Amino acid sequence: MSNSLFSDFEGVSSKGWKQKIQVDLKGADYNDTLIWKNNEGIDVKPFYHSDEFESLPDTSINPKTTWAISQFIQVNTAKDSNLKAIDAISRGAENIIFHIKADHITPEELFKNIDLSAVSIDIKCDFLSEEFTQKILDYTHHISNGSQVTIHTDIIGNLAQTGNWYANLKGDHIKFEAIVKSTNQFSIDLDLYQNAGATIIQQLAYGLAHCNEYLNSIDKILTKDAKTSLNVTFCTAISSNYFFEIAKIRALRLLWSTLAAEYGINTDCRIISTPSKRNKTIYDYNVNMLRTTTECMSAILGGTDVVYNLPYDVLFHESNEFGDRIARNQLLVLKNESYFDKVNNAADGAYYIENITKQFAEKALLLFKDIEEQGGFLSQLKEGTIQRKIKESATKEQANFNAEELVLLGTNKHPNLADKMKNDLEVSPFLKVNKRKTLIEPIIQKRLSENLEINRLNKE
Q1: Looking at the predicted structure, is the pLDDT value of residue 138 above 70?
Q2: Burial grade of 373 (CB within 10 A; 0-12, 13-18, 19 or more)
């Protein structure tokens, strides 16, 4: 058939569609009835049309068929963590994230029998140490020239989360600059802001301003070649607003590319994503699997590089083989049975996603510029401005949850009141407040359902 079937029909403009909708509404107000208002300050329309774009959206520069399935491992002993990593790799993990609590861990034992040229490794530490970093570098360079090891260093993230520097401002920055110079990499912890209740626009703007503090610090110590190959990793938490979270990842890449270009730095970045803890629950906990599945889907379609899933029982059980296996298998199903690694940039050209991506990037950039005009991210952290703004957003979201406008199925809507959890809690799922002296007010991560769950537990 030589002629397209669609050539027999006249095109309909966005104006034409809107007029038809208004007729069908029979007098109801279009804006009040069909425009969705949300906490991001973005009005979502019932439809989007190509004639609303001056030019068609560009193709994303990063093909995302190569996202990696990750396994997150808390390192208490090197031997046990190594065996757990090897088992995870044999069952489909393509990346390992080691969270190391103490610097006595030896890389020889931790990486034993792991092919570092085939599996990428991320190292997160609860301490700041040039010596430990150098041990990792020396070992990985010795055994494999093609090793893919990323050492996460985020001193401002530690300050924001704990309220204190590792040592002090000057000492931390000296060590940070030395580590960046030797590794040519650093990371930004964005999941802190999401899990504390920040809006998407706040997450993006704070992440950009957070990163800008580092770029100002290292701009003069890196060579031109080092700048063009600098590896910056963003760690993000993904919540349940499916299309918004896709747009968030895409907007993050746009914002980073814009900022990096100003410094003459590698405009590509690496993004690690994991489901948010803020909307997870202990009652009707199997629903957590549905939440984490759609959140991982958002991360993948948005173009993340590495995804590690949360076990459905992570809030109330010690780390266990079954929970880890189910979480990893969710990603294996997405990759190998749902073919989420077969299509590049699947979200490209969706006018809705393109529109909100653009709005997120623009609004976040405006907020970023305001932060810089007010002295920068670190200054606003010390003044408590960042903490106050996140609290305001979190309080609004909590009110929506309490009013059942924001629904967590099985928790604040259609709960199974026969469900008992008191005897199944191996770890506390609730916010712990440890009173200590801090330089600044820390940013507190808290789940939406905590108060409701405490009340239910007290009545069991």
Answers
A1: yes
A2: exposed
pTM higher than the cut 0.85: yes
> Is residue 94 one of the residues assigned to a domain?
no
Q: CA–CA separation, 444 vs 431, rounded Å? A: 9
Tokens representing 434 are 């440890």
**Which stretches of 140-222 are assigned E, i.e. beta strand?**
149-151, 185-189
Query: How distant, in Å, are the alpha carbons of 17, 32, 35, 200, 352 from that of 46?
Result: 10, 12, 7, 21, 9
What's residue 162's pLDDT?
Answer: 96
Q: Is residue 340 part of a domain?
A: yes
First-to-final CA distance of the chain: 69
Do residues 85 and 59 touch, judged by C-beta distance below 8 A? Answer: no
76 located within any domain: no
Q: Which range marks the domain in which residue 255 is found?
A: 152-357
Indicate which CATH number applies to the domain containing 245.
3.20.20.240
Based on the structure, what is the number of domains in the chain? Answer: 2
Residues 343 and 224 in one domain: yes
Q: Angle 41-377-230 (CA atoms, 0-180°, nearest 5)? A: 105
Residues above pLDDT 90, as percent of the chain = 81
Q: What is the mean pLDDT of residues 265-278?
A: 97
Task: Please give the pLDDT value at position 1.
Answer: 44
Pairing relationship of beta strands 306-308 and 120-125 according to DSSP bridges? unpaired
Last residue in a domain, options 324, 357, 390: 357
Distance CA 394, CA 193 (A): 10
Give the chain's mean pLDDT. 94
Instruction: Check residue 144 and report its DSSP letter.
Output: -
Cα–Cα distance measured from residue 169 to residue 155, given in angstroms and rounded to the nearest whole number = 9
pLDDT, tens digit, for every residue of 39-96?
A: 898 889 999 998 888 887 777 766 667 899 999 999 999 999 999 999 999 999 999 9
Task: Report yes or no on 353 lying in a domain.
Answer: yes
Decide if pLDDT at 252 tops 80: yes
